[in-house]
Design goal:
alpha/beta; Rossmann fold
């Protein structure tokens, strides 16, 4: 059964670009850096510049933990370099990578877990500024970026998940018998190539948006089949 055409979304002053965890440790030259990190960095910089020119805010997140490991939890078991302090909030490796064009007016949000909403003031920032749409990219596609997208969706924010502005690094086998792929596209609300003509925030995005009810129906049909 074909899906109904989705209405376009206007990106106006109610949208924000959220760039997830483009830190030294994840972008390049580190044991858990994404192979495509530098390429994604260049594309995100171009999009961030377009957002700034259009008056849209830019938010950068950092995945950091307390020095000494008091709040590392299971992450230290899953990713040994984390237990070694590689994302301690005061570690040089936890800083945003030098490739990233961070400007004085940008907002930086430090997060203790995968999602950018849990344990942070991100939602307060968004609500206080009348934001209802989040343009989302960064590292890792299927962990921190995906978790942030899902957290945003359940809070009734529109999510534009950038299909070419995310990247992965390999994760250890967690019992599934295989490691994660190095790159993949985001599964969330909309898949939106940042290098398309639509990537200028003043233009319209016509990528397909499915409501949670539509996704539930699709999943139910798949299970019955």
């Amino acid at each position: 059964m074909s899906q109904r055409p989705c209405p376009p979304i206007d990106l106006d002053e109610h949208a924000v670009l959220v760039v997830v965890d483009m830190q030294r440790v994840f972008v390049a030259d580190a044991p858990i850096a994404a192979p495509a990190g530098a390429e994604v960095a260049a594309r995100l910089n171009r999009l961030a510049a377009a957002c700034c020119q259009s008056g849209l805010p830019v938010i950068w997140t950092r995945h950091v933990v307390r020095p000494g490991g008091s709040n590392i939890g299971l992450l230290g078991e899953m990713v040994p370099p984390v237990a070694g302090g590689i994302i301690d909030e005061d570690a040089p490796t936890a800083a945003l990578h030098e490739l990233m064009d961070v400007h004085d007016g940008d907002i930086i949000v430090d997060k203790p877990r995968f999602g950018a909403f849990y344990g942070t003031d991100l939602e307060v920032i968004l609500r206080s500024n009348g934001i209802d749409t989040i343009i989302l990219g960064g590292i890792n596609t299927n962990v921190c970026v995906d978790t942030t997208a899902r957290e945003a969706a359940v809070r009734e924010f529109r999510v534009l998940f950038l299909s070419d502005d995310t990247a992965n690094f390999d994760l250890p086998d967690g019992g599934s018998g295989r490691s994660a792929p190095k790159t993949c596209s985001g599964p969330q609300s909309q898949s939106w190539p940042s290098d398309s003509p639509r990537s200028t925030p003043s233009m319209r995005c016509r990528a397909g948006f499915r409501s949670s009810a539509q996704r539930d129906r699709s999943a139910h049909g798949a299970r019955r089949g």
